[in-house]
What does this fold into?
Amino acid sequence: MQSLKELYKIGNGPSSSHTMGPKRATEIFKNKHPDATKFKIILYGSLALTGKGHLTDYIIRKTLEGYETEIEFNKEYKCEVHPNTFDIFAFKNNEQIGYWRVYSVGGGTFQVDGKKEIDIPNIYMEESFDEIKKYCIEHNCDLYEYVYKVEGESINQFLEEIWESMQSTIRKGLTTGGFIHGKLNLDRRAKKLFEKKIENEDSAIRQNRLLSAYAYATSEENASGGIIVTAPTCGASGVLPAVLFYMKEKYSFCDEKIVRALAVAGVIGNVIKTNASISGAECGCQAEIGTACSMAAAAVTYLLGGSIERIENSAEIAMEHHLGLTCDPIYGYVQIPCIERNAIAAMRALESSNLVMMLDKERKVSFDIVVETMYETGKDLQSHYRETSEGGLAKKYCRNKYYNTDLKD
It folds into this structure.
């Protein structure tokens, strides 16, 4: 498995696979061809089908500012390796001097066909949760201590920066009103949720209102192209920060404890990223929101003093009940149903952990099994349910004239 520094990334939304990944790859390719006078990019699969709504062409043009840039959307060709594929060419005086085929595999990470030297190295020897659990039991260490042993103490400072960025995004989202850019003309709701006065509000309603407000805050910042942390992706970036922000407020946990919870959540996200996928284009929204919910549930269970077995169980439950979740963003925007899903997943993460803390330790399904199941389920989903906006809610919404009378192409 790779470093947690490759899982948690600070950057601009709205999509880790459609903007952050292509931006990073384009930047490196550009720097490797300083003599180039022109670049050509051909987007395939989900990058072509939802690239406009996800700002793929915008971020590439911005990255190649000052150069002649040609971008082509090829919606017909389907790459067998990964649905988020693009070709990038470099030219000097109309003569091709460079070429990469890039796979944007999710979470801002990319791979280049035939360029193993660019691949990010693995630093963890263990790859499955069973292997990690065995290591922790044998070495009598917690999950966060396992992370520190492998990555070194510097990971603590990195996670502190990640936590500070998450909090900053929530605070900004809670104080920002208005509408989110795009033809959906979507109203920002985080501030309203946070400030809403509910008569006779009980603790359960308050909990859900605040969790939703925090999740909306980050997700609306993401949809607006603001600064967020991939956790594990941009589209699912609101879940983990919302849960941690709420837990800190409710129980007065110190930042050091929250940072350790981030390390625990990172282990869960890394296992899924390694053995399955965190890409909506590859495995549907279960790979994004499902993973975020698992990460958040594990973090909560750690904060509540749960054992490694209970941490695993809460992550398993959170993912199990997202199996089959489709990725069908309307108009290709990371807005509907994405923002709302972050709020629902934040609430579900807390309930998954609470359930585990009430149950005995006996269970039938391991986390590794549910991760494998999620991956197989994602591969079985038809392509129009995997971030192409060709089916599901995206298709039905666009065909419904009643709801679209005020929208123009």
Q: What stands out?
A: Residues 154-174 form the longest helix (21 residues). The chain is about 50% helix and 10% strand.
